[in-house]
Amino acid sequence: MQRVSDETLQGIGFGLGERAAYATCPEKSRGRFVDEPRSRTRTEFQRDRDRIVHSTAFRRLKHKTQVFFSHEGDHYRTRLTHTIEVSQIARALARAFRLDEDLAEAVALVHDFGHTPFGHTGEDVLNELMADYGGFDHNAQALRVVTKLERRYAEFDGLNLTWETLEGLVKHNGPLEDPETGRGTRGPVPPTILNYCALHDLEIDRHAGLEAQLAAISDDIAYNTHDIDDGLRAGLLNFDMLREVTLAREILDEVDRLYPGLDDSRRGHETTRRLITRMVEDVIARTTQNLSELEPTSVEDIYRAGRTMAEFSPEMASLERELKDFMFANMYRHPDVMRVRAQAEEIVRGLFAAFMAQPEKMGGHWSEQLSQVDEPALARRVADYLAGMTDTFALSEHRRLFDHTPDLR
């Protein structure tokens, strides 16, 4: 893995001085789908960040599952706390490269808006149930939320975010289309994204700006490390198990050498914070190397690079894959987790079937003009309604409609 030298740290400056030439500039934003006067007190990307934070979708993240369901304990991460942790790492990395910190933070804060209740279980079930209607993808759903489903403003639906924040949201993990063949890089591009791009081209065959790329890798860093913390707290993982993973073993050896006899709580926190530092420094070193090879003079050079700039070194990428494989085998697929996931799946399937059969039971504006809605449009409306639910609301809706509701234990 790559470590950051003192010279490199001095060179990148941690946000000191002028913005980097390859940073995304708010003064040169491509604007919003609906034209608005510019703010007199905030940059365009600060305005985006603020709209995201004040949105209904952001508040709902508080009661949406990360790994453990909310009733299992107040100390486990939810989508909201995970999102805040991602935004902190993204902002720190953006500062290191003298980028626009507000844009990096905005992309980080909005990246999970499309997630369903009950974590990836809800997404997997909805994708299956929506197979005949265009499928369900949490990234595409996030775009629907910020361009259509949020109902806050008199003059437009959604949040009317800038082009740069939207393109960062949609393709922070890389281009969605191959520029030569037009084929999807990770399977078919969701219709939601294609339909939006027909109206407001997000250039899904090119890479996003560096701020969005750093937000994406911050997501990996955050959940890799903090899921370990939650796994230790839940008793699904222990330190002996972590020693099976090369990177975790190295850091545990370091912690135990420096602090022999440390209690388990501090030992776990010391391990995860050092793991974050190790990954962050590796990203800084590798991204610095990539930038020195590309020598970008504008954000357009980042868009056209044809490769990801913000990434782990090959060695760290291999260690991270080992860590992910370990977490899937020992935590995400743990029998206790899988049992609760099966119960959550039952809830989502039941709600989808009930609302498709009697859509008026959704209530509110969701039940308006149902006579004008065909089956595919109804299915999408039901999926929108379900995806916006928190864990707690999904449970209460299921109890309202059914005689028996699993208790997710």
UniProtKB/TrEMBL annotation:
InterPro entries: dGTPase, dGTPase-like, dNTPase_2, HD/PDEase_dom, HD_domain, PHydrolase_assoc_dom. Belongs to the dGTPase family. Type 2 subfamily. This is Deoxyguanosinetriphosphate triphosphohydrolase-like protein. It comes from the Bacteria. It holds the Pfam family HD_assoc. HAMAP family: dGTPase_type2 (MF_01212). GO terms for molecular function: dGTPase activity. SMART domains: HDc (SM00471). Residues 79-224 form the HD domain. Keywords: Hydrolase. Gene3D superfamilies: Hypothetical protein af1432. PROSITE patterns: HD. The lineage of its organism: Bacteria, Pseudomonadati, Pseudomonadota, Alphaproteobacteria, Hyphomicrobiales. GO terms for biological process: dGTP catabolic process. CDD domains: HDc. The keyword Hydrolase applies.
